[in-house]
Amino acid sequence: EADIYQTPRYLVIGTGKKITLECSQTMGHDKMYWYQQDPGMELHLIHYSYGVNSTEKGDLSSESTVSRIRTEHFPLTLESARPSHTSQYLCASSPLAGEAETQYFGPGTRLLVL
Amino acid sequence: GQNIDQPTEMTATEGAIVQINCTYQTSGFNGLFWYQQHAGEAPTFLSYNVLDGLEEKGRFSSFLSRSKGYSYLLLKELQMKDSASYLCAVKDSNYQLIWGAGTKLIIKP
Questions:
Q1: Contact: B101, A41; criterion CB under 8 Å
Q2: For site-directed labelling of A65, which of A73, A79, A109, B26 has its Cα 20 to 30 A away?
Q3: Which strands make up the sheet holding B60-65, listed edge to edge?
Q4: C-alpha span between B87 and B33 (Å, rounded)
């Protein structure tokens, strides 16, 4: 069973605020990912990391940043929240090799920007 | 461009069998995944195919034909708890996952 955690689970915030979504995993996985998903839509990759001090941009990265200082921790920061950021944010992790690099997901953070 | 196609919604009866199809056009192929996602929850891994053929795992089976860019997920002995969205995802030549929008499966008694 995958052990990956996200906080907060729900967040309501005003426009212009800076927010950080937390993600931690206890599986020792090297790769971690952030996705954005609207209801009934596909997952869109925001950022990913191959390991400590590695961060890469996905399709929707322009308005957010990530850091990977520790293997288990991969926070996502929105510098200035906008209503268009309202969505569900999913964090995932996978081993670097083996197991087909299957991605395991956290429970998600539902963000509402007013 | 890269594209994953799945039916938007399907309906089936409890106890029956349903097949959910997925066709893909991607830059390279390094495996195909099926995930289950209940409403409001995160996706959970179901199956992985990288070679042609059928992979069976309990009530769920997944089939792949790389030459046709086609896969299906077969669910047998449907239960009400199988009501969920089923996501098809393909790992491309850069080893990134390209996701379909998912098929919402409705199970009726």
A1: yes
A2: B26
A3: B3-5, B18-25, B70-75, B60-65, B53-57
A4: 8
